[in-house]
């Protein structure tokens, strides 16, 4: 049952990531905003779920935790894509965009995990 929960959540997360890319790519040129948005949203959701499952719903079934955190957030978050896109920016001599992308991604996503955790845990 655990594998099925992860599989279903991962598929849903991947579909959401694909949806963001279809909406955002036409508007932002070289800057990979679609991956940045997916990482920000997934970080906030994962922080929220961590707070929720650790503090408020610690007795929730493992399948729900695996579906939401491991499956959905794992399918939705795109760190490997982030790394490849950073490499491509560098490869195309967009050094400032690469630096900006890395700095924004790390700072904002860590902040979103914290904010999501605070919201999910209620304090």
Q: How is this structure best described in words?
A:
This protein is mainly alpha-helical and 123 residues long. The protein has five helices and no strands. It is 86% helix and 0% strand. Helix 2 packs parallel to helix 5. The longest helix has 27 residues. The N and C termini lie far apart (32 Å).
Order of helices and strands: HHHHH
Residue fraction in strands: under 5%
Number of helices: 5
How would you sum up the global shape? globular
Rg to the nearest angstrom?
A: 16 Å
- Indicate the low-confidence ranges by residue numbers: none
**What gap, in angstroms, lies between the N and C termini?**
32 Å
Q: Fraction of residues in helices? A: over 70%
Average pLDDT confidence is 93
Helix/sheet category: mainly alpha
Largest sheet, described in full? none
Overall strand count: 0
In a few lines, what is going on in this structure?
By secondary structure, the protein is mainly α. It is 86% helix and 0% strand.
List keywords for this structure.
123 residues, mainly alpha
Topology:
Layout: H1 2-28, H2 33-56, H3 62-76, H4 79-91, H5 95-121
Helix pairs in contact: 1-2, 1-3, 2-3, 2-5, 4-5
């Amino acid at each position: 049952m655990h594998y099925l929960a992860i599989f279903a959540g991962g598929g849903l997360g991947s579909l959401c990531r694909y949806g963001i890319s279809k909406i955002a790519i036409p508007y932002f040129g070289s800057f990979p905003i679609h991956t940045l948005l997916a990482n920000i949203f997934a970080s906030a959701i994962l922080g929220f779920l961590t707070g929720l499952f650790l503090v408020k719903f610690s007795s929730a079934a493992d399948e729900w935790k695996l579906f939401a955190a491991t499956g959905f957030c794992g399918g939705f978050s795109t760190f490997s894509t982030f790394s490849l896109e950073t490499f491509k920016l560098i490869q195309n001599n967009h050094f400032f965009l690469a630096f900006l992308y890395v700095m924004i991604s790390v700072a904002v996503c860590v902040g979103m995990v914290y904010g999501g955790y605070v919201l999910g845990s209620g304090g």
